[in-house]
Specification:
By secondary structure, the chain is of the alpha+beta class. It has 3 helices and 7 strands, in the order ββαβααββββ.
Length: 179
């Protein structure tokens, strides 16, 4: 089973000024896949593992490799995170099942030579709702200056029978982090 990807969306920002000019630009990248929800319209599916095993590593690899490429390679990435959004016809567990597994996370860590667990966020939402990706350091999850959030909206997703699965990466600490 391959993910039925309707589209892949990317977001990239480079912040040059935040209260004052930054010594170096702060960069964010998000890569999100809009996919058909494999559990849509099937009622309560007790065992989600077959779809997780088939889809999570594929999505993790596609999204993380594209994000790392947009960042300029693994060495340009210092922080990462993930998020999922379920269309109104799905359930909360559908996004959770795909992003909160080592099958997904290991692919993300591999893409950036990271070692820490990824922070994540998931929700049920209508199309166009903001998706928030919490971020933390790729090796040291307790370094608070790396804690921040990237927001993304996709105007036509997730549709009622879709999921949005996203990976975000950042070039360093949040601008002017000083904790």
């Amino acid at each position: 089973m391959e993910p039925q990807i309707r589209k892949i969306c990317t977001y990239h920002e480079e912040i040059l000024f935040d209260i004052r000019p930054l010594e170096q630009p702060f960069r964010h990248v998000v890569v999100a896949a809009v996919i058909k929800n494999p559990w849509f319209d099937r009622g309560l599916v007790e065992d989600l593992k077959p779809e997780i095993a088939a889809l999570a590593p594929v999505l993790g690899k596609i999204l993380a490799n594209k994000a790392a490429e947009l960042m300029g390679g693994p060495d340009a990435v210092e922080a990462f995170g993930k998020a999922g959004s379920v269309g109104l016809g799905g359930e909360y567990e559908h996004a959770n099942a795909l992003i909160h597994t080592t099958l997904f996370g290991d692919e993300c860590r591999r893409a950036i030579n990271g070692t820490s667990w990824m922070v994540g966020n998931q929700k049920i939402a209508p199309a166009g709702a903001a998706i928030e990706l919490p971020m933390s350091h790729k090796h040291e999850p307790k370094w608070q200056n790396y804690y921040h959030t990237i927001s993304l909206t996709i105007p036509d997703a997730p549709r009622v029978d879709e999921l949005v699965i996203a990976v975000g990466m950042a070039s360093g600490t949040r601008p002017n982090g000083r904790l």
